[in-house]
Write a structure and sequence with these properties.
605 residues; mainly alpha; Clc chloride channel; CBS-domain; three-stranded mixed β-sheet; two-stranded antiparallel sheet; 63% helix
């Protein structure tokens, strides 16, 4: 067998068929995004490092850093977003989700420029946001426009969009699995092998490219696996309750974070002020919080890591690094430390909501990780303080909390647990990570049905469904759909009889049965309408002359995906539901009622 034919056979077996070239395009996207991620992230980290360690007059520099810089950066961000307007509002990831579900994967190149410049200005000037969401959007835009350049079909366009998004996230965290599952869980909601294969290739190549350039496997935010070497090696049944409670707490924090962000967004949308100035107005409030923190909380805790700007400014990775070091908890008075951590949870939520809700540009991944670390360390410290766990390790709880809050905000437990696992490279943590991430997701969904990204789409009236839309149809049967009582006629009756029944019962479709009440066929509204072209001949036409005996029937235990296939194959609005044993008609199922019931179940999921 020729090599080309063998290659095509293998491609067909993994679900790609003639689209084997997607693998090659995924490699290209991975290489491009490995370099693009560094080009985007390194200037931000350099700027933050420069601002934190510059040696100048402390008072003057702190005034500049805390007061002037955030407002100036927000003003420039407002100018950038005004100069590069987008038709669809929402955060970058939300726009990717919208494109995948409503725009056939198409994203304009202007989105990449808008996210790149706006996020650099926002985060680099102290705005409380992260770079991961923007790099996901940048990667998605690269993949989408590559597909546009090659004139690919919508399905392949969405696949390349996912390749770019996964490649960006994989490069930032050196976590290819997290990038893969984030795209499959949150953006595309598609776990088919045809989609999965190119996305895996793009994520792996991107992470490998970043590691090759940097010469290290450490994540770009500077917290490597060596910090977690002291993590507990065993997870016992006795630890289950404490991590279950942590999952509940993190789910509530994630929900509160999302609701606060949505409330402040609504406030700024309704605010009568020029759009170009709204990010600066949010920065003014952020600055007030920063000044208050510097006056009251700057010296509340001691640590080897020190920053001149408030702890809740920027992406917060320095704060995460501090909370994951056990030495931090030995250096500070316990009561004061817990009070400061609790205040920081609230300040980080408000600061992020002000930064992004007012129109600033940035991502929600980093704030979620920071909130998880703060919540987990606060929870572990409280357990230790009250004596429930006198030898508790707050750093471990901080680590597990990171996974739980990420899972709760995104409604994506796989992404949360795998991201933290890949960062730590410590399998001993996988059990508590899994437990808390799942519980946090459940709690977050109970409190707020939409994820922090999905709420943007819900505000536009868009339902994007779930990972298992087809599975949902397979779980539902004809019994779940309210049926229409059948109006039955015999083959020998006249067309005039159909008109009379139509007027009396306000129906369009009629079931044709024999003398024993067994199904023979249907007379549809379209068939009757065509007969009415020659209205004077209606009394002379018999039902048997216009009935359709080629239409399929359904039974009450048939799943809705099968019924939908039958509707798709025949251009009718109704199908007869019969008893399989005697072919008696029990009702009509309509396309409209099927879809309404499906939508109702979709909203419950």
């Amino acid at each position: 067998m020729p090599v080309r034919q063998q290659f095509r056979t293998i491609s067909t077996r993994i679900g790609l068929g003639s689209d084997w070239y997607l693998i090659l395009l995924a490699v290209v996207i991975g290489l491009v995004m490995g370099g693009a991620t560094l080009a985007f992230i390194l200037p931000i980290t350099w700027l933050e490092g420069t601002l934190e360690h510059v040696d100048e007059d402390p008072v003057a520099w702190t005034t500049w850093l805390v007061l002037v810089l955030p407002i100036g950066g927000a003003l420039l961000t407002g100018v950038t977003l005004w100069a590069l307007p987008m038709r669809v509002r929402g955060h970058g990831v939300s726009q990717c989700m919208y494109a995948a579900s409503r725009e056939q994967g198409r994203l304009p190149m202007i989105l990449m420029v808008r996210q790149w410049v706006g996020s650099t200005l926002t985060i680099g000037s102290g705005g409380s946001a992260g770079p991961e969401g923007p790099i996901v959007t940048i990667g998605a835009t690269v993949g989408s426009n590559l597909a546009k350049l090659l004139r690919l079909d919508p399905q392949n366009t969405c696949t390349l969009l996912g390749c770019g998004a996964a490649a960006g996230l994989a490069a930032v965290f050196n976590a290819p699995m997290a990038g893969i599952f984030f795209v499959l869980e949150v953006i595309l909601r598609d776990f088919s092998l045809r989609t999965f294969t190119p996305i895996v290739v793009a994520a792996v190549i991107s992470a490998a490219t970043t590691q090759t350039i940097l010469g290290t496997s450490q994540p770009l935010f500077g917290v490597g696996p060596e910090i977690f070497n002291d993590a507990d090696r065993q997870f016992t049944v006795l630890q289950v309750p404490e991590f279950m409670v942590l999952g509940i707490v993190c789910g509530l924090v994630a929900s509160f974070f999302g609701l606060t962000l949505r409330s402040i967004e609504k406030f700024f949308v309704a605010l009568r002020a020029p759009t170009i100035l709204k990010p600066a107005l949010g920065a003014v409030v952020l600055v007030i919080l920063g000044i208050s923190w510097n006056q009251l909380g700057d010296d509340a805790v001691s640590t080897e890591e020190h920053w001149k700007s408030p702890a809740f400014y920027g992406n917060g990775y320095l704060l995460i690094k501090m909370l994951l070091q056990p030495e931090f908890y030995l250096q500070n008075p316990q009561h004061l430390m817990l009070l400061v951590l609790g205040v920081l949870v609230l300040l980080k939520i408000v600061a992020t909501a002000l930064t992004l809700g007012s129109g600033g540009s940035g991502g929600l991944f980093a704030p979620s990780l920071v909130l998880g670390a703060l919540t987990g360390s606060l929870f572990g410290g409280l357990l230790e303080l009250v004596g429930i766990l006198p030898n508790a390790n707050p750093a471990q709880f901080a680590l597990v909390g990171m996974a739980a809050v990420v899972a709760g905000t995104n409604h994506a437990p796989l992404t949360g647990m795998i991201l933290v696992y890949e960062i730590t490279q410590n399998y001993a943590l996988i059990l508590p990570l899994m437990l808390t991430a799942v519980i946090a997701t459940i709690v977050a969904r109970i409190v707020n049905r939409d994820s922090i990204y999905g709420s943007d789409l819900s505000a536009m009236g868009i339902k994007i469904g779930t990972l298992g839309d087809l599975t949902l149809l397979r779980r539902m049967s004809v019994r779940d759909v309210p049926m229409i009582p059948p109006v039955m006629v015999r083959e020998g009756e006249s067309g005039q009889r159909l008109l009379e029944l139509s007027e009396r019962f306000s129906v369009n479709d009629f079931v044709v049965v024999n003398d024993e009440g067994q199904y023979l066929g249907l007379v549809t509204g379209n068939d009757l309408a065509q007969a009415l072209i020659y209205r004077e001949a209606i009394p002379l036409i018999q039902v048997g002359e216009i009935e359709r005996s080629d239409l399929p029937t359904v039974h009450r235990d048939e799943t809705l995906d099968q019924v939908l296939d039958k509707f798709s194959a025949h251009d009718v609005q109704s199908l007869a539901v019969i008893n399989l044993s005697n072919r008696e008609v029990v009702g009509l199922i309509t396309r409209t009622r099927l879809m309404k019931e499906y939508q109702r179940e979709l909203e419950k999921d």
